[in-house]
Amino acid sequence: MSNGPIQEASVALPTNFRPPQLAVIVPSYNERGNIELLYEKVALALGDTAWEMIVVDDNSPDGTADVVNELSRVYANIRCVRRFGRRGLASACIEGMAVTAAPYVAVIDADHQHDETILPQMLAEALSGADLVVGSRFAEGGSAGDGLSEARLSGSNLANRLAGMIAGQAVSDPMSGFFLIRREAALEAAPKLASDGFKILIDLIVTSARMGKPLKIAEVPYTFRPRHAGESKMNPLIVIQYLGLWVSKMTGGALPPSFLLFGLVGGTGVVVHLATLWFFTSVLIQGEVVSQTTEFLISQIAATMIAMAWNFVLNNNLTYADRKLKGRRLITGFLSFCAICALGGIANISVANAIYQWDHQTFVAGLSGAIMSSVFNYAVTRAFTWK
Question: What's the confidence (pLDDT) of residue 84?
């Protein structure tokens, strides 16, 4: 079949069409009350610059995606990427960067705390040769303003100091969520970035440097503002996820960011196990006509099952919140989790016994077995239970 007529046809572009020079990526979750005003502010700030806004929404129950789709019927340069079964700011940013053809991409929060009026200056810095331009609250001329409480400001300062230990470059605000980067540089690093978590800037800086392609960084100061509408997403889980990312980068990627949270959940599981064991042996079964051996066996089985259920629920809601199991998959996931943890227990005993036979150091053998089972459980449950 000939396709000659198609080859000869020409595509008529709108007379006012200009390919975007800049894509503004807005990760969102329950930001319905912020999106339209943010678009208007960015449009005013960028003026004649050819740009587009890509809102990456994690299937917000408040209808954020519906608002974006309504706006896209009015404005040609805004669209929504709606994600199902995936959560997390970092992965949202990566997906937003991947769907645009603009040579430069900026990441900005939907809550209006970032000052969109500096976007032209950030773009100018990039056009002058910077690979990455950071909107900084702590560079000279910048300020945390009224956007952070004293407690959050102290936490932010600590996080910045930790980030400075792995950045390898002088950056005043490595925890900033407001930055502009060459799309090619971002996508080159993207396959090696942590998809879970809420801090992508420091990951971009460290990963690019370790790939042998350190980014040329510029900074533009701004004043951090209070949130316009909705609720802050900051919570203890985000802090733990950041610490997981930090540990991962400190170890050169040997430990994935989610491994820290998985390990912390496992630590609470030990507490639950011991508490359950005490309750069964000292309260529930105490006085029953059973041998001490049988009493311990029943208590140990109960403690093991309750601890497994505890670990599974916490991991499903915290460690793997971005791939949370529901419905029938919740049941099959729990069964696979228990089976894998049982195999991990066998691995624990085998490794510990082998090491003990080698040097008869009880602590070393026990610790080695525990580490072995933790790594095994993490790797296999991630591959099968929360795949």
Answer: 85
Q: How many residues belong to the chain?
A: 387
How high is the pLDDT of residue 279?
81
Burial class (CB within 10 angstroms; exposed 0-12, middle 13-18, buried 19+) of 248 = buried
Alpha-carbon distance 208 to 320, whole Å?
Answer: 26
Residue 141, pLDDT above cutoff 80? yes
Q: Among all chains, which residue has been given the structure tokens 């690979």?
A: 131
Task: Report the alpha-carbon distance of residue 119 to residue 125 in Å, rounded.
Answer: 10
Per-residue pLDDT at 226 exceeds 90: no
Among candidate residues 63, 98, 57, 61, the one with its CA nearest the CA of residue 80: 57
- The CATH number of domain 22-233, selected from 3.90.550.10, 3.40.50.800, 3.40.50.150, 1.10.10.60: 3.90.550.10
Residue 206: the pLDDT is: 84
3-state helix, strand, coil in the chain (%, to 5): 55, 10, 35
Taking the C-alpha atoms of residue 96 and residue 25, their distance in angstroms, rounded to an integer, is 6
Mean pLDDT of 101-113: 93
pLDDT at 143 over 90: no
Domain boundaries, the chain: 22-233, 257-385
Contacts of 102 (CB under 8 A, 6+ apart): 19, 20, 21, 22, 23, 51, 52, 183
Q: Taking the C-alpha atoms of 379, 380, 385 and 387 in order, what is their torsion angle to the nearest 10 degrees?
A: 60
Q: How far apart are CA 330 and CA 315, in angstroms?
A: 12
* Prediction pTM value: 0.67
| CA distances (Å), origin 273, targets 77, 92, 165 | 55, 37, 37
pLDDT at position 1: 44
Mean pLDDT calculated for residue range 49-70? 93
pLDDT of residue 224: 84
How far apart CA 72 and CA 55 sit, in angstroms, is: 11
**CA pair distance 382, 319, nearest whole angstrom:** 10
